[in-house]
Write a structure and sequence with these properties.
66% of the residues lie in helices and 3% in strands. The protein is mostly helical and 527 residues long. It binds zinc ion. The site of zinc ion has 4 residues, from helix 13 and helix 14.
Length: 527
Amino acid sequence: MDAAGIVEGAERRLRPLFVAAAVSAWDANVAATEENERRRVEAELALSDALADPELYRSVETARGNGAEGLLRRQLDILHDTLVPHQIPEALRHRIVELEASVEARFAQHRGVVGGEPVDDNRIKEILRASDDPAERREAWEASKTIGALVADDVRELARLRNEAARSLGHRDWFALAVAVSEMDEERLFATLAECDALTAEPFAEWKAATDAQLSSRFGCRAEELMPWHYEDPFFQEVPAAGGVDLAHVFDAADVVALARETFDGIGLETAGILERSDLYPREQKCQHAFCLDVDREGDVRVLANVAPDRYWADTMLHELGHGVFDLGIDRGLPWFLRGCHLTLTEGVAILMGRLAQEAGWLRDVAGVDTAEAAALDVELGAARAAEVLVFTRWVLVMTNFERAFYADPEADLSTLWWELVSRYQLVTPPPERSEPDWAAKIHVACAPVYYHTYLYGNLVASQLRATLERDAGGLVGRPEAGRLLTEQLFGPGESVRWDALLARATGEPLTAVHLARDITAGLAAA
Ligand SMILES: [Zn+2]
């Protein structure tokens, strides 16, 4: 069969299975019932079985070897990367799918306990934001970690199974395989991480010392006595209010969904259809996180969220809809296999949009903050955004270095390793004598393995895109030119062009940390 025939046959067979898996994943996250869980596993196994077909894999390899070009070649390359991780023994493959689903279901169902009552993640964050009582904060923080102990053994087992799979395919471990099949290069990844580490170490230490001083006066202790529960986010992946700008009065009574929709309206990108299909508010048995899902690459794009009226959810709605408009903007005339987008680019656009929730111009033009107040907040907000990037970059350094070590040796003393990385990169003091598997409380380790570095790349891409929009579209908020540029340069081409080439073409330069560094220094210098 010729290359075109192979791709056509693959689409006929795989496309309905991809769609069924997406629908069942959506259902299981919206309501983590046993029935939905069972259907989800079924759909994933059916897809995985088809992707494991050795004959299909061989024919794709042969066609690639025969020098196919253009869009045909891109489809074969994408197919190759999709098929490779599935070319492993069936029993092993099934075991991985089932165990992943089971761990994810436990995350969705689990509620920590504070004051004898089961509480959701939003409530835990609320306590860590508002409570001045260190004992209550500690209890909430510990409650946020109890899921770790429940799933740790299985997450470790997942690493063993994933490694076994990766090695059977000739890769060092799962980390190496995952990077190799996502159009990334491990050496370059760690060079970028080292660059970001060097760039942020000093300004982060300075920012954190100032924040610690505020926190220690709030909690009446010495800076050395600050514990992880004194920072607001359970993983310290976000800036505590003490080190940021308090925007509670802006968002308290706001409809953050409407604000996000207006933002996209302002740049000429339609989100009404996405919002209609979405599930946006908290409920029991529902996944507590947020994500955007392109179900069929035909326009059925949905967002799952747990919206509350605060800046976090304003940022998150802008973020998820950023993914959504990307999906909707992909040229539907492209072959189905190319109607996707590389994770670094879609994260870049999502982060670009999410950052707006903390920009003076957006607060004024979209959230209705009056001009004088917005102007007065401008410098502070610039510093807060810089702090956010610093805090998040340090957190990604923890996650990515942890994951590489995790797959290098799943039998290692992971609790010790985790707290070593947390104290090295985040400068947080480990609680004395704590040996709980806190690393397993982060859902990504189990369910989105070797993904976190994508968020850092997303931050680099966001800063780089923003610089391009300032130069070529006169800005972002309220600029239909910005929406047009993103659609034409980034969304439209889908995966017809490799992500790094597409980014270079859209921005005039290859991926660089220069713009992120500039955002940080500019924000901190003005303050
Ligand atoms: Zn995202």
